[in-house]
Amino acid sequence: MNKIRKFSHGRNAFCWILFLVHFISVQAQDQSKLETCDKGCCCSSDPTPAGVMISHVHQKNEWMISYRYMDMGMSGVLDGTKSVDANSVYTNYLMSPNTMRMDMHMLMGMYGITDRLTTMVMLNYNVNSMTMTMLPTVSMPGMDMGPSGSMPPMKTTGIGDLKLHFLYGLINGNYHQLLVSGGVNIPLGSIQQKGDRSHVMYPNQRLPYMMQLGSGTVDVLPCVNYLYQKNDLTFSSQLSSTIRTAMNQFGYKWGNEAVLNTWFAYNWLGNLSSSVRLEGCVQGKMTGFDPTLYRYNEPSANSLNYGGEKVNTYIGSTYHFKSGFLKNNRLGVEYGIPLYQNVNGLQMKGKQSIYASWSVTF
Ligand SMILES: [Cu+2]
Asked: Cα of 217 to ligand 1 centre, how many Å?
């Protein structure tokens, strides 16, 4: 019952996405398809899916501002590729995670320094919450436990890390576009989020790695992106990476990451495109650990339970306003589910991701 309530939010959001797609497709029907494509290319209507951050450079002196909302839902526990129940988690840990939600609100600005060189700044606001169940035989004095040993959720909110990128368009043709980019993660997000004084497991103590708001490290973010656009079809493939440069102040660093993103988009109603995306992600193990965390509290407190391989698939739509007072505004939504997950140790299982984006170019 609890579980159902947790995920009804995700379902509601999905219904809203369907409604939005329907609404904008009705709007799109009176738009002529011809006006969007000149020179055999529909480059003016950017069909990049809502969950893809890097795909294009801007013209000199052109600005883009965007807001993105991301929601990631997790539920249950994986041991490698296999689902395991709470009882097997209790073999080594005092608590077992039930559900986790990670919401991000991202503000992004882009500016074309030259026709080839664009700069991009991103700042996140994160909202994390995790529910857990305690081993039934463990009882703590003064603890307020719900049915079946469920605990009040752990929550953290606040500003995340700041990311600064420079994108360079190597090839900027009508059909083929190739860009390389280099970025840096500036660790603005707190890694000192603590449980409150009455918290059962973390009274005034730092919460697990996953609940922290940033990485605590300066990270290098290289990326190469290829995009092919002809008539109504767009294809793109992107390899991006996160490389941690040093340990953070508490003596750990997250694993390096490599992400391969491939997507197709079809512009089927003039201003409306739909996309299918496949994303593969490999993350290395965490190095070092936070000495104040008791690693057998629950799996996310153990630095060995980080990193792994994931493949996700997404469907999405974007709508580009071509006229009226919303001219040059773009809306996008994307919904994704995992196809394959192979985690190091015990980790929560990804269930779904939702992205929604709005951007304006001027
Ligand atoms: Cu842009």
From this structure: 26
